Amino acid sequence: MEQTNSTAHLSAANLTMAYGERVIQKNLTFEVGQGEIFIIMGGSGCGKSTLLRHLVGLKEPARGQVFHGQASLYDVSQKEQKNLMQRIGILYQSGALFSSMTLFENVALPLQQYTDYSPSEIRELVMFKLSLVGLDGFENHLPAEISGGMKKRVGLARAIALDPEVLFFDEPSAGLDPISARRLDDLILELKASLGATIVVVTHELASIFAIGTDSIFLDAETKTMIASGNPKDLLDHSKDSRVIRFLTRGQSR
């Protein structure tokens, strides 16, 4: 089954997410354009991370479709779905590093599993990816030996190891102090510019939303659907929905 709009890098059509009989979100229809930094936002428990799982192929929708380009992610063959998923990179909220492996080994893992590169080529690529995230000289450290912000950057280096077309971030600033969070935002912007990747970010952090977001959707836990979409700054300036404004101002006046 194919998508009709060829300009969208990712899209969802009439998507309903559920765990058994419990509906999390329904009737989600949106598009993520090539090169956008697309924010999935909303209050706690609205289904932001669940939507991310649907977009990356980890959970099949109760109804509706997810498209990667022209391909319907859950309608293609297993082989084609695997190929589609190898075009994406994911930075998990915790970083999800293997504690017994060095930073080098963590970043090298996808290259060892999914490419035919030689050990010397893998080493060159890993060192390059670590340098991109500002971790030159740390390749032999274990995750326990570095800070939380550095762990996020290692996770990001691993996420970009295979030069993905789309990067997904699940609450990338969670657990970081404001300075480290801002540095991570700056790094995301730098990587977007250098890699040309489309980026999808799940977050409730206002500073990040306004600093990096070029497009967004707002998920509402009460109505169980999206109630706003667009550039976050435009939503702040022009939205008439009190729920969106409360979220984007944290209850303060505009």
From TrEMBL:
Record's keyword annotation contains Lipoprotein: no
Swiss-Prot/TrEMBL keywords: ATP-binding, Nucleotide-binding, Transport
Stretches assigned to the ABC transporter domain: 10-248
GO molecular function list: ATP binding
Pfam families assigned: ABC_tran (PF00005)
Record SMART domains: AAA
Domain of life of the organism encoding this protein: Bacteria
Record's protein name: ABC transporter ATP-binding protein
Organism: Desulfoluna limicola
Transmembrane segments: none
